[in-house]
Amino acid sequence: MRVAGKVAIVTGANVGIGAAVAKVLAEEGAAVVITGRRKDLLDHVVADIERKKGRALAVAGSVTDEAHVRSVVDQCLRAFGALNILVNNAGIGAFGKLLHEIDEATWHDVLDVNLTGVFRMTRASVPTMLKNGGGSIINISSVGGVIGFSGSAAYGTSKGGLELFTKCVAMDYAQNGIRCNSVCPGLIDTPMAAPLLNNPEMKAEVLAAYPIRRVGTPEEVAKMVLYLASDEASWVTGSSFMIDGGLTAH
Ligand SMILES: NC(=O)c1ccc[n+]([C@@H]2O[C@H](COP(=O)([O-])OP(=O)(O)OC[C@H]3O[C@@H](n4cnc5c(N)ncnc54)[C@H](OP(=O)(O)O)[C@@H]3O)[C@@H](O)[C@H]2O)c1
């Protein structure tokens, strides 16, 4: 059990990468608080975890809502008495439009969820981690936060901001036992990627750029998050971890 006795919050954990992260952390001994807007889907994930004798609590809401964010941390402390791991996973995509075609509402929405949402959740969590004597914060970024893709200006900017946010938070708390790292997935088989994956021509074109010619799985990303969440990563902070089938290696 690699995170036995620890307590984690995973945002956006009712489907996709977040759900896989929550399940892996629970299997490895953590109690998990999972968030997202769709309560019915959160309840399925809680049921899956409890079926395997894990501990989980669903708190429905949006990372764009400060009151929800505060309540997630409060409910986490009330239910499980601590907070050791924060996985900022909630995110939305916005792809396929050139910069001059992006409307202002989309630009703001993407930044509000993918970047400001992480700021809110992290700001609400840090005081408890400071009291605990430490913690591990893992931000789910993207290859799109490290290299440029056409049709991705709002999303790429949000994830690029997240990359520097990660390093700044790591510097703020390096002396306090709080580590902060980012994970940068390439194309992963989740609902977010479904429009692309369901289009055979687009899928083939995108996969041609991946040295390992397949899509990644949410479980593969979850294993990397597990490492960063665990004490095995005790000297790792302020770093970005690519998990992309080799995409950014060339
Ligand atoms: N799939 C990929 O290829 C890929 C690649 C690189 C990076 N990523 C990143 O990985 C993370 C997870 O992506 P995914 O592929 O698993 O996406 P997904 O399948 O679309 O799931 C997104 C999750 O975020 C939640 N969410 C969205 N807006 C939210 C909000 N305002 N407040 C709280 N939760 C919210 C969703 O739940 P509700 O809709 O119910 O709120 C859902 O649980 C994202 O940050 C994404 O940018 C994904």
Name the helicity range: 40-55%
What proportion of the residues form beta strands (DSSP E)?
A: 15-25%
How many independent structural domains?
1
How many runs of DSSP E, i.e. beta strands? 7
CATH superfamily: NAD(P)-binding Rossmann-like Domain
Strand order of the largest sheet: 3-2-1-4-5-6-7
Radius of gyration: 17 Å
Features:
250 residues; alpha/beta; Rossmann fold; seven-stranded parallel sheet; 8 helices; 7 strands; 15% strand; globular; binds NADP nicotinamide-adenine-dinucleotide phosphate
Question: What does this 3D model show about the protein?
Answer:
This protein is of the alpha/beta class. The chain contains eight helices and seven strands; from the N terminus they run E-H-E-H-E-H-E-H-E-H-E-H-H-H-E. It has a seven-stranded parallel β-sheet with strand order 3-2-1-4-5-6-7, sandwiched between helices. Helix 3 runs parallel beside helix 4 (104-132) and helix 4 (104-132) packs parallel to helix 5. The longest helix has 29 residues, at 104-132.
